[in-house]
Design brief:
Elements: H1 8-24, E1 39-40, H2 42-54, H3 58-71, E2 82-83, E3 95-97, H4 98-115, H5 118-137, E4 148-150, H6 161-180, H7 186-201, H8 217-225, H9 231-240, H10 242-245, E5 246-247, E6 251-252, E7 260-262, H11 263-275, H12 279-289, E8 302-304, E9 309-310, H13 317-331
Antiparallel strand pairs: 1-2, 3-4, 5-6, 7-8, 8-9
Length: 348
């Protein structure tokens, strides 16, 4: 069966408009807000910057990465929120989410794969080293990683499937960066192997302190993006709950019990389908998302098909970044196209 594709003109148009939208929200200091006058968190900041790397806006990517490096805490972490409205008691300005701390490693590895900019990696590897050391320090004996910490509130001692899946891929990227620079990070490799085993074989280590997150689509497909399954295993996992999460004309629901599809989750499902060897299904999901790009290049975050309304009334830069990551995965626009679609090289 032939694989469906977009035309080069359509690809160039999506890329250009998405890039311009992300750039419009990048501040003079390098920070990329969710949208103009919006907030910023480290994970979504890097996701938007990765979109810029795909569009070969390398200077803008570096500006974004340097801004984040300058915000790094002395222990290697970042807080869960920067910029945005100042509010008394804003706990996210004190909370540290471990998957947010790990994700810059994925961004820097992707940037290197596309740009071949070894000098920038050498200069900023210390940022990744401190971040991953912090994340690994939060690993439990069973392999799972504490989801968050705070000095302002008491947080449950627990782990999240989606967050740990993202962390796993980020640790893999950090290991690749270390190998590139000739550095031995055996402690990272051991942490990686333990976390991968936990995700595959110890489901009881997740959602111990709160209601199960299984209704969220990300818990369904993020382990595929983590690279812990072969194609056959990935296919079985995605087939098992397909009808719960997928609207064939609109995309992927955020949660199984709400009539709300979201563009970013649909992009990530697109990449998971590619990892499972189901590229035509991936193309169909992705093509349905193009209707949500506005004239300014931004993509609406989600759509309620029960109420027939766009919701929320937001066009987030990280959604545009996710679009570019999925577009790259589908059409191999850059040398980093298989970043989220290839099985882990550390488990073979």
């Amino acid at each position: 069966m032939d694989i469906e594709t977009l035309t080069p003109h359509t690809i160039a148009n999506i890329t250009e408009k998405s890039k311009r939208y992300i750039l419009s929200a990048q501040q003079s200091d390098g920070a990329i807000l969710w949208f103009e006058q919006g907030k910023l968190d480290p994970w979504d900041h890097i996701e938007a910057a990765m979109g810029l790397a795909i569009a070969e806006e390398f200077s803008a990517f570096r500006h974004a990465f340097v801004w984040l490096a300058q915000q790094q805490n002395t222990d290697g972490s970042w807080f869960a929120k920067y910029k945005g409205d100042e509010q008394d008691g804003d706990l996210d300005r004190h909370k540290i989410e471990t998957n947010f701390v790990a994700y810059p490693a994925t961004g820097l590895w992707q940037y290197y794969l596309i740009s071949n900019d070894l000098d920038f990696v050498q200069k900023h590897f210390i940022t990744i080293e401190r971040a991953i050391d912090f994340v690994v320090s939060q690993q439990r004996a069973e392999g799972d990683i504490q989801w968050a910490l705070s000095d302002k509130e008491t947080l449950p001692k627990d782990a999240l499937v989606t967050a740990c899946s993202s962390i796993l891929r980020s640790i893999e990227c950090a290991i690749h960066l270390a190998h590139l620079l000739g550095k031995d990070k055996q402690s990272w490799v051991l942490a990686y192997v333990k976390l991968a085993d936990c995700l595959k074989n110890r489901p009881w280590r997740f959602d111990r302190s709160w209601e199960s997150k299984a209704r969220f689509s990300m818990d369904w497909f993020y382990p595929v993006l983590a690279g812990i399954y072969n194609k056959e295993e990935a296919q079985l996992r995605l087939q098992s709950r397909w009808d719960e999460f997928v609207h064939p004309q609109l995309g992927c629901r955020c949660v199984s019990d709400e009539p709300w599809v979201t563009v970013a989750e649909s992009c990530e499902l697109t990449m998971a389908l590619i990892a499972a060897g189901q590229k035509n299904a991936a193309f169909k999901i992705f093509k349905a998302l193009l209707q949500w790009q506005d004239d300014d290049g931004g993509f609406w975050t989600g759509y309620s098909f029960r109420d027939n309304v766009i919701w929320p009334q937001e066009k987030t830069t990280w959604t545009a970044g996710a679009i570019l990551l999925a577009l790259d995965a589908l059409h191999s626009l850059t040398p980093a196209a298989s970043l989220f679609t290839s099985p882990s090289q550390l488990l073979t």
